[in-house]
Amino acid sequence: MIKVADIMTTNPHTAFEQTTLEEAISLCNEHKIRHLPIVDSQQHLIGLVSERTLLAAQESNLSKTSEAQRRAHEQQIMLKHIMLTKLHTVDAAAGVGQAAKHIERHRIGCLPVVEGKKLIGIITDTDFVGVAISLLEMLAEQEPLSPDA
Question: Where's the CBS domain (predicted)?
Fold first, then answer.
């Protein structure tokens, strides 16, 4: 059985409750990530922001606010005000299939991987796409040659 520990991202990028919206957006853009776990000083998972959460908290580009006003807004909002706190998590020893079903059933984009309360990794919907691609490639290699070949 493939376990979550086999495919999770270890040492994921994280932020703190006091991290600003501007800093979180910059971090996500810089590292090309869509989910940002929020931890305390002991690396205990306390929340999560997603790309969707960050976008919802931003000033709309359609509003009549200036770039300076938008930036000031993003510098004032702390993640503790917008983070999700009712989180779905998974243990590193859980099976990948079980984790995939959980993500699909609850329509979420990631599962933080915890050991007790401590964040040790993250597994995302993109990780499952990678697993599916690998499995499809393995199946394609095992297919017998057609009689016409």
Answer: 8-65, 83-138
Q: What is the Cα–Cα distance from 114 to 76, expressed in whole angstroms?
A: 30
Give the SS3 label for residue 148.
Answer: coil
Of 116, 117, 100, give the one whose Cα is nearest residue 3: 100
Q: State CA 106 to chain mean position distance.
A: 14
- Tell me the domain boundaries of the chain: 4-142
Structure tokens at 103: 């993500």
Tens digit of each residue's pLDDT (9 = 90 or more) over 60-70: 655 677 778 87
**Cα-trace Rg, the chain:** 19
| Predicted local confidence at residue 62, as pLDDT | 55
pTM for the structure as a whole: 0.83
Which CATH code fits 4-142? 3.10.580.10
User: What is the separation, in whole angstroms, between the first and last Cα of the chain?
Assistant: 35
Neighbours of 33 (CB within 10 A): 18
